[in-house]
Amino acid sequence: MKLDVDVLRYLSKDDFRVLTAVEMGMRNHEIVPAELIERIACLKHGGTYKVMKNLLKYKLLHHDSSKYDGFRLTYLGYDFLAIKTLVNRGVFSSVGRQIGVGKESDIFEVANEDGTIMAMKLHRLGRTSFRAVKNKRDYLRHRSSFNWLYLSRLAALKEFAFMKALGEHGFPVPTAVDCNRHCVIMSLVQGYPLVQVKQIQNPETVFENIIGLVIRLAEHGLIHCDFNEFNIMVWKDTLTVLSFQVVVYCRFSCALNLNFDDSHL
């Protein structure tokens, strides 16, 4: 589903109030009953159903009447809640072009009032190509129920925390700026993904830096389980590592024997 931020211009406070009500209802319901949304939103003059109809038009909600009359947030609706919150915080003021598409995320350029360009990563777990996430990741722990929006939020929180900690310890990672729901704001990295680089002036140096980085992470008890040519940015001889929602911590040397889902080194 394409992110069209122009729709934000047409959304009122009541629209966001209802979106938030659906989000709150989804804590305990896969499909939130319409009556519950109306009670949570508590609009002064009623009109919740009219607002929901408007949100359906922009595909921010999905209607399901198979068991009862209910609604759930779409990823687009979740995007708008996160973007609205971050804009209100003053983190950024405009959204630019899309600069990346992953198997579980979309990445856009954003800019603040000073004109500083940053990257906005929207986690989108649950895509058809990545349905086994609940078995391969530690997000759920002992939880027996989940929805993809909640898992995406956990992935974003984990990535932001690891990126912030690694940056503070001098690892070559983007600067973690802010996080809300499934959205992570980070500095824009100069360079190209290693997979797009056809020729490197000093390949031996780059290779040694990559292996050295893997060892350095392992010495801190960290294993990046998606350490591959898609998640390494190269600029001259400088490397920057991306995608930290798949980092695992292990205090034992057996961590080195973990099977990397996508690693090709």
TrEMBL record:
Q: Which reaction does it catalyse?
A: L-seryl-[protein] + ATP = O-phospho-L-seryl-[protein] + ADP + H(+); L-threonyl-[protein] + ATP = O-phospho-L-threonyl-[protein] + ADP + H(+)
Q: Which domain of life is it from?
A: Eukaryota
Q: Which cofactors? A: Mg(2+)
- Answer yes or no on keyword Transferase: yes
What's one GO MF term for it?
protein serine/threonine kinase activity
E.C. number, please? Answer: 2.7.11.1
Read off the SMART domains from this record: RIO
- Alphabetical keyword list: ATP-binding, Kinase, Magnesium, Metal-binding, Nucleotide-binding, Serine/threonine-protein kinase, Transferase
Pfam families the UniProt entry points to: RIO1, Rio2_N
Q: Does the keyword Magnesium apply?
A: yes
GO cellular component assignments: cytosol; nucleus; preribosome, small subunit precursor
Q: Which residues form the RIO kinase domain?
A: 64-261
Any GO BP: maturation of SSU-rRNA
Quote the SUPFAM superfamilies the UniProt record gives.
Protein kinase-like (PK-like), Winged helix' DNA-binding domain
Into which family does the record put it?
Belongs to the protein kinase superfamily. RIO-type Ser/Thr kinase family.
Official protein name in the record? Serine/threonine-protein kinase RIO2
Species name: Kalanchoe fedtschenkoi
